[in-house]
Amino acid sequence: METLARELAALPPSLGPVRVVGVDGHAGSGKSTFADRLAAALGGAPVLHLDDVASHAELFGWWGRLRAQVLEPLAAGRPARWTPYDWTARRFGPERVLEPAPVLIIEGVGAGRRALRPYLARLLWMETPRETSWGRGRRRDGRELSAFWDGWERAERAHFADDPSRPFAHTLVRQRGTGYEWTSEVSATPGAPSTITDGDELPRA
């Protein structure tokens, strides 16, 4: 993971003084876990989870809020002030402050959407098949959230049909039994050859 972290830290800033790294993929593909491990390898880089920006009413309609609360302040070198959504209480919670940092990881479904891509220094895509990812998510959340997942799957299909992220990813990340493997410098053209492959082992029990 340190190899990838060094590569990302060496990129030029993409939003004011910040290098914004997007981690996208299907729901349940392992984005949050990977983003947290990458943040640790970057020395404690902040991670913004798009689950905290979305809401029941706006599964993918969060762009204006992200731009106004987070991107515009950081672009000006100011702290971002944003209000995370509470999925249990169904309302936005107390304001949080996000200081400009050398690297900010934005993680979640839609982190590579077309409106956000101009602000990204690098886009990573979790290369886990959709059905596998959704199966993981359903098992994780249990039967009580099956109705939510039915609605989510329809919304995610519609989002990626209109605004796909994977064709524009610079790096594809695959989770293996012993850790992660990634292929960097993937062209925005689907099917184009890659140039760099690396990996990182998970800690053994």
What does this 3D model show about the protein?
This protein is an alpha/beta fold and 205 residues long. The chain has one domain (2-201): P-loop containing nucleotide triphosphate hydrolases (Rossmann fold, 3-Layer(aba) Sandwich). It contains five helices and eleven strands; from the N terminus they run H-E-H-E-H-E-E-E-E-E-E-H-H-E-E-E. It has helices at residues 2-9, 31-41, 63-75, 130-141, 146-162, and strands spanning 19-24, 47-49, 80-82, 85-86, 91-92, 96-98, 103-107, 122-126, 171-176, 179-184, 196-201. Strands 2-7-1-8-9-10-11 form a seven-stranded mixed sheet, covered by helices on one side. The longest helix is centred in the C-terminal third of the chain and has 17 residues, at 146-162. It is globular and about 45 Å long. Mean pLDDT is 88; it is low at 187-205.
Topology overview:
Layout (H helix, E strand, L loop, with lengths): L1 H8 L9 E6 L6 H11 L5 E3 L13 H13 L4 E3 L2 E2 L4 E2 L3 E3 L4 E5 L14 E5 L3 H12 L4 H17 L8 E6 L2 E6 L11 E6 L4
Parallel strand pairs: 1-7, 1-8, 2-7, 8-9
Antiparallel strand pairs: 3-6, 4-5, 9-10, 10-11
Overall tally of domains: 1
Average residue pLDDT: 88
Tell me the span between the first and last alpha carbons.
18 Å
CATH class: Alpha Beta
Spatial strand order of the main sheet: 2-7-1-8-9-10-11
Q: Give helix and strand order, one letter per element, not per position.
A: HEHEHEEEEEEHHEEE
The name of the CATH architecture is 3-Layer(aba) Sandwich
What is the CATH topology classification name?
A: Rossmann fold
Secondary structure: helix percent: 25-40%
**Structural class of the secondary structure composition?**
alpha/beta
What is the CATH superfamily label?
P-loop containing nucleotide triphosphate hydrolases
What's the main sheet like?
A: 7 strands, mixed
**H/I helix tally:** 5
Beta percentage is: 15-25%
Low-confidence stretches: 187-205
Tally of strands: 11
Radius of gyration: 16 Å
Shape: globular
